[in-house]
Every structure is written in C-alpha cells, then in structure tokens.
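Worked problem 6 (solution included).
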Amino acid sequence: MKLTISAGLFLLAASLVAASDYVEFTIVERLRFSVPGDWPVIANKSTPEKTIFGFQIPNPADDGTPDSSNLAITSTYLKDHVSRDAFEKKDPSTNHEAREKKLVEGWRCASFSSHQKSTEYVIWDCERIVADCGVAVRMAWPHLPKNPADYDKQMETVLSDFLMSVAPSKPLPK
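Solution. The predicted structure is:
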C-alpha cells in the first residue's frame, strides 16, 4: 500500500502503511521519492517554488538520547536557465571540511563529520537536477555507543537507496 502526498497542491490520498512498506511522495507533480513507512515526517514546508521534507530514521541506539538519524530533501523549482546554471555551479556542501565522495551515479555528494554537543555526527550532502527541480538531500546520523559496528555502512546504503528513488513524477517531454 502507498500514501501519496502532492506537496504544494496538498492533494492527499492515504491508505494504511505497514512498517515494511514504502511511502511515495510527489512534489508539485514534478518529483517523486519514497521512504520506508516507519520514517516519521518531522518537517514539511511547501511553496510552488520550494518544498522541504524532513524524516527521522528509526534507530534503537538513539532511544533515550537527544540524538537521531535523519534525512531532509529540498526541491527547488528551476524556472529558467539562470536558476539551473546557478544550481549546477553550487557546491553540494556548505562545510569547508566536506570531501566529495561518489555514492550514486548522477548525484554530487560530499561528506563530513560534525558535533552536536558531545556527539559526533556523519553528514552527507547530495545534489542533482531532476526534471526541472534542483534537489538537495542531507542525511545525518550520530555515532552512538549502541550503534551496530557497521552502522555507517548501513546508513550509506539507506542514503543510496533513497537517492535512487528520486525521479521525475511523470515522463519527461521528448
């Protein structure tokens, strides 16, 4: 079963979602992506020009802590070649310590570490143009004592899967 949300137009068609199912989001009939059904939406803001969704990624290791794994996607309508060129020239990360890394073909990604209070976080920033949208994705997760030993690798796989789900919401004109 799927839940479809058209941000900006706020058309909503809902059905029950089991934890193992995915939820598909459509942004202003331009862009679509999917996330696991057990990811709570923690932020949502939409205008015809820009839409932002934030999700918390469940992690048993962060129970009882102020820390959490999360992902945010921002879609910006690129209405002309000037806005498209500016997006293409933009650095995918605003952190000067970020290092470019290959993760998924077609995406520009950079990764760095940062601290929130005493907790170290791994942060990935990825960008690309999809249809007529500039898409920016940020995923962050804490290094916690109860994380599995391969948590970084697991989270990179989660990010890769998410990036591969981002696509035009309808076929592009030829």
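Discussion: Residues 151-165 form the longest helix (15 residues).
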